[in-house]
Amino acid sequence: MKTNIPSQLLRLLVAANLSLFALTRAHADEDGSTVTANLSAPGKPATLRINMPWADIHIVGVGGNTVTVQSTLNQKGAKPRREDGLRRLDDELTFELTEKNNVVTLGIAGDNPWSSHDAEFNVSVPRTMALDVKTEAGGDLTVKDIEGDIDVSNMNGEVRLEGISGSTVVSTMNGEVHAVYSKAPQKLVSITSMNGEVELRVPAETKANVRLRTHNGSILTDFDEAVLKTKTEGKSGGYSYGYSGDAREAARAATDAAKMAIQVAVDIGRDVAHQVAMDMKMADEQAHLAKVQAEDQAKADSDQAKADADEAKAEKEADEAEASAPATATAGSATLVAPVAPKAPHTPRAAHAPRPPMPPMTGGKTVTGTLNGGGVDIKISTMNGEITLRQTGAAGAKTTDNVTVKFEEPDRFTDVRENHSSSNSTDYLDALSNYLQETAAARLGAGQKLVITVTDIDLAGDNMLGSPDMIRVMKDIYSPKIKLKFQLLGADGKVVKEGERRLNDTNYLTQAGRPGSSEPLYYDKQLLKQWVQDEFGGKS
After folding, report:
1. Distance (Å, rounded) from C-alpha 263 to C-alpha 275?
2. Residue 422 has what DSSP assignment?
3. Of 43, 87, 176, 293, whose CB count within 10 A is highest?
4. Gap between the Cα atoms of 219 and 257, Å rounded
5. pTM, whole model, 2 decimals?
6. Ramachandran region of residue 409, left (φ > 0), alpha (ψ -120 to 50) or beta?
7. Beta bridge partners of 472
8. What confidence tens digit (pLDDT) does each residue in 497-509 have?
9. pLDDT tens per residue, range 186-197
């Protein structure tokens, strides 16, 4: 993560996280639940609303008119059977899914929804559904294949949106944001992160007015300057909070944040009051139980005293010889057990601090301009982090008649990220692509087509410190590793075979018939060659 967090803010975040984890952790006792909700008006606009303190949420768009939620938590009201035969008496942390007027709501329920937990939600929704997602404490969010509008408010965690096409408004305090559009956006795109890099990918034909602002970080793009025409509006040192520039937008954002904080405080107060009431009720029940136990003990002692007296009397009557001796029958006095003092109510939990409103950002480095002549508004702001505006699509795609090779985000490949040399070139991709095409094409049947998407590459060896890029040190620990996806289509266009593979040759230096070679990419090509042979057959 290319994020620079000021030390004072970092200490504040650490303290906040420690406070969160000091609260009681709540976990689901079972494997969770799967719940569905059908839209009451299929075909009409619909919205999924999610509001919860802390959870990892994964949302994917599908066909149909049903929302399906699979969670590590149990559904509210469910009483799952445990393997040990026990049942839970207290309220566990659960979730609730409701639908009304095409608005589906997903939320957390239980004794203390603000407790830190490891909840995870996998949600499938109709592709055209709008999303309104809020996490007040944290958690990662991923969204895929959604055509509806997206509104995200997150405190701590990564936000990753892929295959989207509607309006996108994202606001996060601490976390990276990555958004990839499958179609040119026709509505507002607004992304704000206090601490974290922001990457936005849009199709090359997108028409937009762009405004990119960061205080600490670079502003980058791969659009040609003839297409993306920009200018720098100004630059100011240090941090600047206020309402200069777009004052109305800043004031509105601050107002919304304040309202959110008030609502959080109200919710916390309700939770604390509920906890106090439960503790008072428990104290009353304990006092009543103590009283009943004391009364039962007193009665038992009284009965025992009477039995002792009767036994003494019988002995007196039976012993005629000692009639002159005064009979002494001492009935054991009943000892009453003092009632147990009721427990004092528990001290209410410390209220979870409301989410601090995100201050409006002004100043810093601001770049404005037009993309393809201008159009929809694209606004990206971050206090600490890099901003990147890219073109959607796999880079370096190479095609022959029957084999297509693509490289997905090659600038993020392991070999590029870990070798910070003076010329982190990706020219090696052309060599590997050509070799892979030649090797695979000879093994396909008539009319078949193969599409290969490479998602990561870690070349054999490692760059020697201070040496030119082409000099690499070969050791066993630096084995070649390649991740890829593939799809083989038949002559009729139907899928014959597809899958994902992780290639790794840990014995690349000791394989028989593989003497040390100075040929560039020799071992990496051998790894691909072996995979093609194993996957599709044919001679090596």
Report:
1. 18
2. T
3. 176
4. 27
5. 0.51
6. left
7. 463
8. 999 999 999 888 8
9. 999 999 998 889
